[in-house]
Amino acid sequence: MRDEKEKTMRTRSALWILILAGFAGSIAAAPVRKAKPTPSPTASPSTSGTASAASSAACSAPQYRQFDLWLGEWDIVGADGKKTGDDKVVSILGGCALQETWTGPKSGQGMSISAYDPATRHWHQMLVDDSGAVLKLEGEFADGKMVLIGRRPSQKEKGVAIVHRIAWTPAPDHRVHQQWEASTNEGRTWRPVSESNYVPKQ
User: What per-residue string of b and e applies to 48-64 under the rule 16 or more CB within 10 Å gives b?
Assistant: First the structure.
């Protein structure tokens, strides 16, 4: 019985090591300013029912609520007004992380996990889709918006690294504006990748 219990504990420890490994390592990207204590943004009405029923005391500080602006069920609408996907963002692990699941209008799906790390005072996000692409981002909530930055090799141009910068900004009517940019010269210049609005589902 004791051997079985020890085996179970070793298995759980191994799982936590694998989970934490996904967030390990700083991403060499454009400079990210050190996070400052900022007021938690007001969550929109669309977030009702998405927060975890039991909150973790370990994640009760205001910094953990900075990304609550993204909680909800959304229609993703492009700059041209056309719907580009469906998105759902929920609070998990007692409010210690956010889990996103999205689907394209015809095909394509993906998900992400976002969490605030008190050791680095930064937010971290790992995004993966059904093409196998993985993007790790790091950043902070400042000046009224969440900005996360990540660096990964180009799949098209050998030897070229692409820095991705994604910003989420609360907008009128409980919407969230997302601007995605990329740089191939370490953040000296940026080009637009996509611009979308998260519109609460009716």
Answer: eebbeeeeeeebeeebb
